[in-house]
User: Fold this.
Amino acid sequence: MNSKFEGKVWKYGDNINTDVIFPGKYTYQKMEPEEMAKHALEDLDPDFISKVSEGDILVAGKNFGMGSSREQAAIAIKYSGINVIIARSFSRIYFRNAINAGMPAIIAPEAVDSINEGDRVVVDMESGKIITPKGEFTFPPYPATVMNILKKGGLINFIKSNI
Amino acid sequence: MGKTFVEKVFSNKAGKDVKAGAIVSVEPDYVMSHDNAAAIYGTFKKIGVTRIKHPERVVIILDHEVPAPKESSAINHKEIRSFVKEQNIQNFFDINHGICHQIFTEQGFAMPGKLIVGSDSHTTTYGALGALSAGIGRSEVAAIWATGELWFSVPETLKIVINGIMPKYITPKDIALHVIGKIGSDGADYKAVEFSGDTIGRMTVPERMVLSNMAAEMGAKCGYTPPDHNTFDFLRGRAQSEFESLYSDDDAIYCDVLEFNVNDISPSVAKPHTVDNLASVKEVEGTKIDQALIGTCTNGRLEDLEEAAEILKGNKVKVRTLIIPASRTVYKEAVKNGTIETLIDAGAIIMNPGCGPCLGAHQGVMAPGEVTFSTANRNFKGRMGCRDAEIYLGSPITVALAALTGEITDPRREL
Assistant:
């Protein structure tokens, strides 16, 4: 994982659930991550996947990823090109799935309020800073366990390196 | 300073005193997965380990797409059967058993004081038996298969107290929908929920399972009910091992305590497209429905089918009515006591135990513009396979009554 991200923002609202992020009808189909990405946010914003570019940043309201434990909801977003998600809050399982997929999920309510769609935003993981057109915001650093998983690019790589 | 239930479980597991906010790496007692076990096995193999570390802790129950609706699902099931054999996983339940959470509980894996995880968000259900049970992701299951352990953050605990004698036509589902509507779908995000109060004390284990199941819809990590004589009666002759019941200390610190009285709760409905979009049934009376669904891991138990049958007895349904017993055991009991015959006579369709249409993978899919009134736990847009359809959630009583009238109807007026 890089420690610094810079990208264009796509912004969505509160309570974005896993069924609109990655519909249940695909959950038990075997798919490669690239294929999953084609369905990212399909039932929320069918145009998302044609708009998003590599390195973009997703910004959302509270409780992002509520609902199912399906990991594809995190993997699909990651492989759509999104490098980092900033939200007012995340649902518990989504937060874990994002970290375990090697994609930082950052809780920063004030930053979310000040960011507009289309803004260019910088996220610095080391210093815990988000730089937006309207100013700089901080977020609390991850605990060491979580940071180590992210640094290895996700849980599976982390475990591989520890076995 | 005392400890909460979850602090005790994690302290036991970690072998040291831990408090809310700590991060621990510990070994769960059981790890459950279902049809997604095939994908998990794929991830497991990438880790580079050949044998599952503790196959005796692995429980696999096929329920999400059963029987296989298409070739890809059949291949999925075949792969699972093959590695179950290869890895010598004894706790495997093929497609003829029922819904994972029901089977896990019926088989006695859900026990007080145990730490249980599963690759399904409604793994919270086993809290009804006094377990700490939480949903996790697929990679996390693969990680446990390989290493036996996983990282957890020790959550704060939100106590939800329910008091009062449940009035007629108020069920645990109405209580759950009411509470979720009041606290919101993130009202317990990252938190453990502890259910308490005299109403909970009087509830049977199947009734408590409804609340613990719906705890997932508040964002909770788990939905614990302190074990009591009802729990121990349920587990007699069923528990897979010895267990130690754990309880929060009297001076434990809760992040909040919320009290509800069941007399203030109406028959409740969740309107499209979120579970916290609460309405009393009165507010949505007259909403036309195209399909009724009674079943799922929330409300597919014998009591639920009996409640529906009581309403449908001697009448004919006006809309397509899908009934799904939660397990083969439930199905058999419902056949034996005449419940199934009553439901068939009323024109209902009895489907095989499983998740059925709840997650939109197969069966009972709606056309655009249609409405289903369901006893399931989720009504998100597209949930049942069609993004232009609507899902309302309610209790088996309100759903059965709507099946009869073709529209959402207040049971207090009709019955």
